Amino acid sequence: MSGVFTSAAFASFSPLVAHADESGISFWLPGLYGSLAATPATPGWSVAAIYYHTSVGASGAAAASREFQVGRFSPTVNIDLNLALRGQADLMFIAPTYTFATPVLGGQLSATLASVYGRNSASIAGTLTTVAGPIVSTRTGFLEDALVSYGDLYPTVKLKWNNGVHNTMVYGAGDIPVGDYSRNRLANIGIGHGAIDFGGGYTYLNPTTGTEFSAVGGLTYNFKNPDTQYQSGIDFHLDWGVSQFLSKQVFVGFVGYAYQQITDDFGQPAVLGGFRSRVLGVGPQIGYIFQIGSNQAFLGLKGYGEFDAANRPSGWNTWLTFSISEAAPASTVAPTWHKVSK
Predict the structure, then answer these.
(1) What pLDDT, in 10s, does the model give residues 19-35?
(2) Which of 226, 250, 278, 281 has a CA-to-CA distance to 324 between 20 and 30 Å?
(3) Which residues contact 163 (CB under 8 A, 6 or more apart)?
(4) Which of 61, 79, 171, 185 lies closest to 122 in space, CA to CA?
(5) Contact yes or no for 291/297 (Cβ under 8 A)
């Protein structure tokens, strides 16, 4: 397949940061993968710049978990929750990738190292009442925090195979926790702990009809946060996308995700229980493929509205992606939109 499509799918490939688990924050960013996720790329260097905006809110345990982090409440007290959490992030991810020309196990190997910089803000408003024996303590008011800084590093290795209209992929990814993080802040860019993630994906791309479908699933294992002694549970995530090429340059469609924590957290206040998080998201997408000199480029926009959330902030998010890669060999660049694959 022409390398431009893997660059087009770059919005969907290296793990970044997200929402869930400890204090409503987790390693995996739902929506990271989407259309054309498993299609092979042109060998050589490519780079993607992804602007990510999200606006979320939460109440109950999802809001209280953040209060516990910064307020250090005792896990043995009885708690009455009446809190509202609001958050907004504007982040820029830069993700260079090198795709090897020599096949590995009959497939195409690539390696990515992504980084992030941007602004994250959060606020908590309401009342939190704690009862410890005869002692009753009520905390009412408004807490607000904002941070402009850098985040963690996110290495990803992928191996892809192509067989006609069928494309498959396996990947391994991780979090190197070098980002700006403090347990005493409401807003952070780094997540404060390491993580590893493994999964696989499939893309159906019919070059005759221009119809495409992709799905990528994976599992995340989170290491203990050394600052809080909190360990988030194992997460399952499924990202998908469907699209239709209207021409050789433009496609439209829909994207979605499902995120479910499948084991309990450890180290949280007892009142929060296992604190397993869940969310679903769905929304539209549009992509435009074009040439810049001798290179291939992609500009894409997709957005998600979230619903059915549990133990995590939810709302909406948008992704604006620009990626550029080396041009595909002339023999693989077809003259019409329905001849985009090898």
Answers:
(1) 335 555 678 899 999 99
(2) 281
(3) none
(4) 185
(5) yes
